[in-house]
Design brief:
This protein is 77% helix and 0% strand. The protein is built from eleven helices and no strands. The chain has helices spanning 7-18, 22-56, 60-97, 105-108, 118-138, 140-149, 153-163, 171-182, 186-194, 197-205, 211-232.
């Protein structure tokens, strides 16, 4: 039986990394946090605007254009957030591997905007969303389960590319390997997510200010979860 780190151990390792390095962690995840808040607010605002529009007047052609423009803009914003968030996570991955790593936190947010492989991350994002949507059409629960199975895809991509082990790999290979890593670990991942529920509540009660510290702590813990998976399941990579 594989001996995985407990939730407490995963978090303890992250806390040790953050001790004396909170400024670096906050700066690394500040832009992803702001982007997340802005994109969430934009999508919620558009939903309210659409409802307001339909209540006051209805024209099929105009209504279709409104929905289309909202969808396109939301999609483009989600891609920007994706690249910023993944750039930060990938730097966090390097940082956890080398706690003494010297890097520029803010600049790290834009690593994949300068990479020639940025399009691969976007295509993986699209494929994952299509797969998850198709599973959700069957039932909501299978869609959630599959979404958890796909959760390590981007870190698999980062890890394998760093090791130079991607010759002949298609983009779906990273998704497959994520599912293999998550076999028997979906519940562990789900419970780890739930363990941050109290922190999220605290973040909201502080009018969002608490998220400045909570967000990097959470993100680094999720990256550490992947590192633990790989250590115990290296044959899948």
């Amino acid at each position: 039986m594989k001996s995985y780190r407990t939730r407490a151990e995963l978090k303890y390792e992250v806390k040790n990394l953050l001790r004396g390095n909170w400024k670096k962690a906050i700066l690394l995840y500040l832009i992803p946090l702001i982007t997340f808040i802005l994109t969430t607010g934009y999508n919620n605002g558009n939903s309210r605007s659409t409802l307001k529009y339909t209540a006051s007047s209805f024209d099929v052609w105009t209504f279709t254009k409104v929905l289309s423009s909202f969808g396109i803009v939301s999609f483009l914003l989600s891609l920007i957030f994706l690249l910023i968030n993944l750039s930060a996570n990938f730097r966090a991955f390097d940082w956890l591997d080398d706690p003494k790593l010297d890097f520029e936190p803010i600049k790290s947010n834009f690593t994949y905007f300068r990479s020639p492989d940025w399009w691969q991350l976007i295509f993986i994002y699209v494929i994952i969303n299509i797969f998850t949507f198709l599973w959700t059409l069957l039932l909501v629960i299978p869609g959630i389960v599959k979404g958890i199975g796909y959760s390590q895809t981007y870190l698999v991509y980062k890890d394998l590319n760093d090791r130079g082990l991607t010759d002949g790999y298609s983009l779906t290979t990273y998704i497959t390997k994520s599912q293999q890593l998550m076999m028997g670990n979906k519940w562990r991942y789900f419970v780890l997510q739930l363990s941050f529920l109290g922190w999220w509540i605290l973040g909201f009660t502080t009018l969002g200010i608490g998220f400045i510290w909570i967000f990097p702590y959470y993100k680094l813990t999720m990256v550490n979860f992947y590192r633990d998976l790989v250590e115990k399941n290296s044959t899948y990579l």
